[in-house]
Amino acid sequence: MISPHDVAVIVGSLRANSFSGFLARVLADVAPDRLKLRLVGIGDLPLYNQDDDAKPPAPWENFRAAVRPASAVLFVTPEYNRSVPAPLKNAIDVGSRPYGKSVFDGKPAAVASQSPGAMGGFGANHAIRQSLVFLNMPTMAQPELYLSRSAGLFDATGALTDDGTRKFLATFMQAFATWIDTHAGTGGTQA
């Protein structure tokens, strides 16, 4: 039996009833039992400033401590102006610094993006991947998850209303579990 993997879930939207938050909850619901997903909040993180590395703000330390023990990281995000929302990029910067002490180093990752538009957050999804390459995070390539027209897929409570989408999300999470099984514990190089 494979022991459960602890997956830190970082949602790129700060809005209380965001489609990204809804998507993250559905992904947790359809994930195989060997994945234990837990949300790591980013809403209280001060902007990264290297001057603060000597005495990091408590929210930075709390975020780093929450991500550090995870076996893997799942990024769930909307797209803002064809790129990564500022709070998510800031969280990536906070977790990756100071240089050589990244909490992301070597952790398997996946990216799920969504948008009420037709492209499903494609720009944000790929912008995040650029950072993950530098952070030495083996990132699942297939299946890709660009959830388009997300506003029509959830009811007012955040429940997913489309069975075909639910099946696809379950397939995505099964593939991510296999990806983590293959890549977790392979270690990083930045310590």
What is the element layout, followed by pairings?
Layout lengths: L4 E7 L7 H12 L4 E5 L18 H10 L4 E6 L8 H11 L12 E7 L6 H13 L10 E4 L14 H21 L8
Parallel strand pairs: 1-2, 1-3, 3-4, 4-5
For the structure shown, list the relevant keywords.
globular; single chain; alpha/beta; 5 helices; 191 residues; Rossmann fold
- Reading the helices and strands in chain order gives EHEHEHEHEH
Strand order of the largest sheet: 2-1-3-4-5
Strand content: 15-25%
Task: Please state the average pLDDT score.
Answer: 93
The CATH class designation is: Alpha Beta
> Gyration radius, to the nearest Å?
16 Å
CATH superfamily membership, which one? Flavodoxin domain
The description of the largest β-sheet is: 5 strands, parallel
Rounded to the nearest angstrom, the distance between the terminal CA atoms is: 29 Å
CATH topology: Rossmann fold
Low-confidence stretches: none
Coarse shape: globular
Residues in helix, %: 25-40%
Give the count of structural domains: 1
Counting helices, strands and paired strands, the structural category is: alpha/beta
> Count the strands?
5
- The tally of helices reads 5
The CATH architecture can be named as 3-Layer(aba) Sandwich
